[in-house]
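Quality-control log, excerpt.
Job 1 of 2 completed; input and output follow.
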Amino acid sequence: MAEKIKDAGHRRAGQIFPGLGSFVQRRLWPERLALFAAAFLVVILLGVALLGYGRRLYRDWHQNRLLHLAASMLQEKKFNDATQTAREVVKLDPDSLPAYYILAEAAEKQNLEEAVSWRTQIVRLLPNDPDSQLNLASAALRFGKLDLARKAIDQVTPSDRDRAAFHVVAGWLARAEGNLAEQEEQFAAAVKREPGNDLYQFNLAVLQIQTSDPQKSARARDTLNRLTKLAPFRSGALRALLNDAVARNDPAAADSLAQQLQMSQEVTFGDYLLCLNFYRKLDEKKFRLLLERVKPLAVRNPSDLASLMTWMNENGLAGDVVKWVDKLRPDELSSPPASIAVADAYASVRNWSRLKRWTRAGAWGESEYLRLGYHAIAARRLQQNTADTEFETVWRSAEQATNEWPKRELDLARLASKWNLEKEAEQLWLRVGKNPPMRREAFDALRRLYRANNNLEKLYDILHRLHESSPNEAPITADLARLGLTIEQNTKQSYDLAKEAYDRAPNEVNCAVTYAFFLSRLGRSAEGLEIIQRLPTDQLHDPHAAVYTALLLLEANQIDAAKEYINTTDDSKIYLEEKKLLEEARNKIATASASPSPSVSPAPAELTPTPTPTPRSTSTPPLL
């Protein structure tokens, strides 16, 4: 009965709440679904986040692993492996600074030009870091990219320019531009900042030992003697000291240094050539003995053989090279660089027939343009009065064989200048001048060419370009200023340049004389005379300086002193525009001599701004 009552109760409850179950199902199921969906979404997002984070963690771990591996390979001098591994890192992260450092250092260790591009990437990531800019400039200088080096140095802020590292890089840039004076200034500044740095001391001493300043050269000699005791600098210091001893005509010191250099463990074949250069000048017997000892060494290496032959050609021994050639095997001479040295020997002794036969055919490979160049020169010399068509044809072939490569064009330009092919040389040098690392040599060659031909307009233009490429080189600035005044080009600018050159180098005779000449043309002759009076008399007797000195003395009414400078000036050693000035001075003297002398007055003459001296018969002009 109880069970029945209970069962009845359940049925009643179901009847009382007949819609309760369906109500719950209708109202709670969508909420449950939403809850489940939200939870599922959260799980998915969390999974994605964890997966992304995990991937990032793995990528960072993998990247760091590759970087450590590349750094280890670099330390072990496995440069190719280090480069390949670091490149993988860059693929993963194009802004990986450590990878670029590894790539740059590996490339520099292998002397590869791509070091410049890696240093450029580092500068991109660290544009305000002075060390990064200086490292880029150094790499650019190593591979001849002067414009890029200059741009990188210019990016260094003024506050970071008084560091030794900046002065060193700026010094090497100055040298690349041909400005040795600025190079010395910069190296001296580096030594001043870090006087205990032996490398900086060495760089400065090698420069200053060549100077005409006796105090500087003596200090440099002492520094280099000290550095011969240090292994890293021993050979370099000995070379510099040997050159200095030869220049000073000190055979005892030179002999001792030459012996030390030959016994050095770091002796190079170039050092043997340096010793040959010394003995050639001071001891013929020792020179011949060393030459015969070096020849067998040279034959072992084609590059050394060519170096020795080239040295002999340049030192008046081309005839000996021609005789030596007959004793060597053809396979030792048939290809560059030896074949080029042999061709130069034949040209040097003017044996044009043999030169033409030597260059008629052959496998000169990448130096084919030189074979054709020498062949063209031989053809021109042998044609004499006949038509020059063979020369023109072969020379055009030589130019085409350069494939417009700057280094080849440079070699061919040097060859054309050496053998006085003026038209061909000018065209080549103008092309070579477009390449920054070769620009200075090209401009200097064009300067000599235009000066020899007295083509003053082109000379002015090339001096202007030289000044633009090396604005701090005072002698070039002075030359540009003086020529500008002479041919009446940009007179105001020329005056500014003359003052700029004098302010920079007041004791340099060219700069001082140029500025003094400008002052005289402006009616300030007394100031100009004061400037040249500060210069050593022997410097003023330089043929070019003497012309301007004579004019200044004439304007100061110092006739006798002016005559001495004019009479000792050799017309064949001065430039065309200076000959006109010299003629102007002679005419002034002739006019002054033809004028009647003023009567003697018992009263003292009035004082003038420029005193007139009593004539003397000594070789040294008064007041100077």
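Job 2 of 2 completed; input and output follow.
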Amino acid sequence: MTNPSFAYDQSMTAPEFGTLDVSPAVVAEILLKRRRVRGSLIEWCRHCGCEPAPHHRLLIDRLERVARGEIKRLAVFMPPGSAKSTYGSILFPPYVMANAPKHAILAASHTTELAERWGRRVRNLIARHSATLGLRLSDDSHAAGYWELESGGEYYAAGVGAAIIGFRAHGALIDDPIRSREDADSPHVRDKIWEWYKSDLLTRLAPGGWVILIQTRWHEDDLAGRIIGEMERGGERWDIVSLPAEAEAGDLLGREPGQWLWDDAYGYGDFLRHEKATQLPRNWSALYQQRPAPETGDYFKEEWFRPYTCEPPRETLNVYGASDYAVTSQGGDYTVHVVIGVDPENRMYLLDLWRGQTSSDVWIEAWCDLVCKWKPAFWAEEYGQIISGVGPYLKRRAIERRAYTCREQFPSRGDKAVRAQSMRGRMATLGLYVRQGAPWFADLRAELLSFPAGKHDDQVDALGLVGQLLDKIRAGENPKPPTVVRSDGYVPSYEDTRNWSWKTL
């Protein structure tokens, strides 16, 4: 991918052909290229030195529909560094103004300084490619925060929360309305942003004006969250482009689950892999996957998660597993396998977790892998058509791979919250210990804290099945001290014989 910087082409920017020694054929070629650039946002981007990746082309398609008046409200959610601002806030305004030279654009960001930086780059693009775009900046108004075109068009940059007085916009761009995690977590700041959006920004739109919101998700109740909530309650309809860093089911780009958003020579894929390995789970879920989870849950609480770096010795743990099986692959639900270890103090360690939208042969092999690795005493699963259908194959593969465990079936109950109550009570009392840096923890945390209102509950169901094994679970045991062997057969008086039995003597 070409680095998103801007190229300079003298043949396309000269104000008059009379200053160039060119033939009529060359003039005709230049005019044809100008027509292509003005008529296609992709051509304009390439003319400026940017070769759009697949996610950029999806964004460009939606932006062109905004320019044609087909979309009035567009929300774009992508991870940091994905060049969404390059295409949406820098390259799009010159293109839309070239096609509507008398229109005014309002651009807003979390601070006036950032908004003016976008304004400066847009202004410089127009100055550099004036002839190509058919636009010329007004000589008496060209500040970064506010400038005009000779044709009557205007551009105004404002910070979120700033008063917008005396300006009527045909379109509004809001890019990164939230400055930091601190602001995202502040109800007061979120309320101020929402009030500014409703009272200041929307009231400055001309009839039929459009709004584009570009951001990474920070919080369930951020500006995007409130807009989506209002839409779900019957408010304004928004077209939403939400692209996670790591693809999930139903991806807008058609990626397979697990594929990265942008993985080429530009190096963004390596950046995402590093971020997933090092970022806080909450940040990864929100900023990178566009799935903000609440700071604390209603049913499961954030403080119930307790990190660990190394699990206790295996011989001190009693190990159990559970699975929640999906009906079909790629059907929206996940198959989930969990492995729990219980130590002598009844603390639970989430030793392993597997989750996927796959065919039964794939998740059966994953199940066998976990059983062979952890050798659980019991494995919980639900009765139903899934296990009855794949049960014979699962049993055969378990025998072939020597994946032996005692499988316990539990009847399905209608209320998922009731099914999860045993695990919830145990977590509330003793916590759930999770491996620090585990690649699956961000998704687990988001699902549990969003339960029961979240989109997915497969991991909750699997943990709930472990909870139903509680009547069979006993605490782990510390290793017994070595037996002292005496020739006369007597047991020394200092030895603890409370756990001895005549059956074993």
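Post-run check on job 2. The chain is about 40% helix and 20% strand.
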